[in-house]
Write a structure and sequence with these properties.
Blueprint (H helix, E strand, L loop, with lengths): L6 H7 L1 H4 L19 H4 L6 H9 L10 H12 L7 H9 L4 H4 L4 H4 L9 H22 L7 H4 L11 H4 L7 H16 L4 H17 L5 H19 L2 H19 L7 H8 L5
Helix pairs in contact: 1-6, 1-16, 4-9, 4-14, 6-13, 9-12, 9-14, 9-15, 12-13, 12-14, 13-14
Length: 276
């Protein structure tokens, strides 16, 4: 039985209202307008060879008919009870990973309000990180095909708009989990005082993909591991260190506004809910 007034009501007015409502109206798999052109963003931080090496290090998915695959599918089936509830709404917000909007996923972790604040160097930094983390995941996906939960069950709802082609696309590893984890590592570096909280939000972005039926737990774990490995490589580059200094200065400016996100209580309550 649902509460008379659920956290979802607060999320609808607060957390989901803060970002594009994460309602990502862009169909999954469709091209989105980047925060800046590749020339402006300098593409990624890593060379093509380093990205390829990261992708090659991802272990293959579990075999068809294996106990691992059965456990993944059973867990995914249990997540169906979350559809339309508080955690589902948060997962809907987490579906938005464009840097100028995804930075807002870290409002509560860092104790700030990014909406309406200019952070061009932070946005550039996230854009370049997204490039590397997503590219590594896409290359890993190309090595072995595993269908998505929404592909196995074409009638299963997703927390974002999906096309027939995106339902049929590869699930392992999760590119969104890779990007989310990499974002979490980067935000931890931008604000070391809130590193643990930033990393947890990065991880939860990946968990949201399983809640949404877009990925299985193993896809999320592999993507999260890949994102963290990618972030470690990125952190060693001089270009990242230069951008990091500028991003820290921008965060200090955002913090001086004294603004915080009204949805943080709702977010905390939702993340505290146990998964089925």
């Amino acid at each position: 039985m649902r509460r008379a007034r659920s956290t979802a009501a607060v999320l609808g007015a607060g957390l989901l209202g803060l970002t594009i409502a994460g309602c990502s109206t862009t169909p999954f798999g469709a091209p989105v307008k980047p925060a800046m052109t590749p020339a402006e963003a300098g593409a990624g931080y890593l060379s093509a060879a380093r990205v390829a090496a990261l992708a090659a290090a991802v272990p293959p998915p579990s075999a068809d008919g294996s106990t691992e695959q059965a456990a993944d599918r059973a867990a995914s089936d249990r997540y169906r009870v979350l559809e339309g509830g508080d955690r589902w709404l948060l997962a809907t917000a987490h579906a938005e990973l464009r840097p100028e909007l995804a930075r807002q996923h870290f409002d509560c972790a860092l104790g700030v309000r990014f909406q309406g604040q200019a952070t061009p160097r932070l946005t550039l930094l996230l854009q370049r990180v997204m490039h590397d983390a997503n590219e590594a995941a896409e290359q890993a996906k190309a090595r072995a095909f595993r269908p998505r939960p929404v592909g196995v069950d074409p009638d299963r709802p997703a927390c974002q708009r999906v096309t027939a082609a995106s339902r049929a696309s590869a699930s392992y590893p999760s590119g969104s989990a890779s990007v989310g984890a990499a974002y979490g590592e980067v935000m931890a570096a931008v604000d070391p005082a809130h590193a643990q909280q930033a990393r947890e939000i990065g991880r939860q972005i990946g968990v949201s993909r399983a809640v949404c039926g877009m990925h299985y737990d193993a896809d999320v774990k592999a993507g999260t591991d890949l994102g963290r490995a990618t972030a470690r490589e990125i952190a060693a580059t001089p270009a990242f260190q230069d951008d990091l200094k500028a991003a820290r200065a921008e965060l200090a400016g955002v913090r001086r506004t004294g603004l915080t996100n009204a949805g943080c209580t709702a977010e905390a309550a939702t993340l505290a809910l146990p998964l089925p």
